[in-house]
């Protein structure tokens, strides 16, 4: 049994489908008058957030509370961490208080993997986003949203995303969401295309199991879902692109571009959106945009992950490496 | 005067011979030498090398005595078969004045385990702005001939040019840490396939290669010699090969870890593999081995970089860069160069003793194993093979990437001017 969720690349197709199916069951709880299951009663989960993230922390907290877990929120700001305490000491302190699982958000890539594999603690570790590495629950909630919209809520049960064409647009270089999505969507059988200016793609992207394009307009008609990634304005100062306006013109999604997508195709965004930069208000507020749904689905997915990791149900395959080597053959 | 007879040692890997040490000097080398009045060390077919010389060591004193001191560092050096180490200047305070280099030099003299030759900083405070008093450091008791801002690159082309020119007056050499600073902002590991997956900031090969290209051209222009620290990429090898073919006076070093390890190890996010320049790819490793074999790369230097445990027992981004290396260097070179057939033991003596001593103008070190020469020697059991156990290190720090890894070769004896500093693998 897999004890941790560190990288989307660690999930097999069956693991991932099991999580999506379990999340559908969890979603039904949200429709009940009393949105609570007793599954994790008496278990303690800490949300260990070294980076500010209101939406992800609240989403995990809601999921934990709906499963009746005792929840501790730990924010690094104003804590002993700001006085120089190490990650190891912080984690051991929390475990000494009887924590069963640690949900960690950290600015350093690999911090959750270190926590899970260094023998510092015994608790389950769930990666809630690490540096520019991985954000596996985001990829799972995105896949869940795609399956519901493109395959169907009931028809989707037990299904993957085989043959669906998914386009990710924007700052891939600095995006943990993009890395997790490429890994998971590939595992689920989808065909992934990354679209970005060459400056915002990592050196080495050629070995990823996806296509790469610099041209958004030619990709849109061949997309079942288009996911816009946030582009921080600061990137402009580091010469990743000349101006905000030029970025928007070449890689932003506006109404005209959305009209070139197939009728059934959806627009996604992991949030927070920078309106006017990568996405216009017209698109963000349209029916085809799933941003709000993604947030709701996030709670279901996180419930499913906590339930499967802590509740005793088994993941199919153990994994020993955080990020198995991708090979060119997988392209 | 005490006498020692080393009996049946393969000198530089050749036929077994006896070597007689009288006082500080080798007095006889030959077959069937008389043991009269001498303490006998039965070499039993072990390989006898000239005492090793490390052109790139961090001893951390003054300033970071929690990670290493001159005493613990020189004990580690003796354990690894070294009789002379060059101590890098990035201490606290920086070794940029005659006072600091003399202090380090004296601490080395007092230790008695290994000669310490301080390296002076090129610029004041390693800040790359203003030349340090290079002449004063050279004229001090420490007699500095090698200058380096190692840890930082002398990136300003004018400062580098002036430094190269200035040290010609006393036959000095500038050892460049080649790293273009803008291209390596936030760099955490080699930029490539693995960094793309792991989401760690990339340290591109071009950041090293572009500086080396510039500096060999500068050295050519002003007629100076330049030394390249810890060369790590296949592209850098090509540039140095080209420069040498043009007659440019460039020398280069490679570290043991760049001869053995690749960036695939970073997948563990274990900071024991975090080092600057970073571990590169298999292709680079093979190019570096080949270049060391054909002489394009002149020497092996350890870049021994001790760090306290807490600086490695953390997340990758927070960890310090560097690895200890003095006590495993010869084993790694045997593994990667000798056992692979790329280099014989005479070649090892050249790359780890003769040539580094020549580049650093170290007197009395890197000398042939023959009568009349100073008795700086190291005896290696090349048949040994076993796992690396950091608990047994003489260094104060344990940040080795080889823990548990099986490596060949073990230094059993080291002599510094005839005095045994290591006997049967134990420090005296």
Tell me what you see in this structure.
The complex is a heterodimer of chains A (331) and B (428). Chain A has 331 residues and is α/β, with parallel strands linked by helices. Chain A contains eleven helices and nine strands. In chain A, helix 5 packs across helix 6 (176-187). Chain B is of the alpha/beta class and 428 residues long. The mean pLDDT of chain B is 97. Classes of the chains: A alpha/beta (331), B alpha/beta (428).
Number of helices of chain B: 11
What low-confidence regions of chain A span 5 or more consecutive residues with pLDDT below 50?
313-331
N-C termini distance of chain B? 18 Å
Mean pLDDT of chain B: 97
How many beta-strand elements of chain A? Answer: 9
The CATH architecture of the largest domain in chain B comes to Alpha-Beta Barrel
**Overall body shape of chain B:** globular
Number of domains of chain B: 2
Tell me the CATH topology of the largest domain in chain A. Rossmann fold
SSE ordering of chain A: HEHEHEHEHEHEEHEHHEHH
Question: What is this structure, in a nutshell?
Answer:
Chain A has 331 residues and is of the alpha/beta class. Helices cover 35% and strands 14% of the residues of chain A.
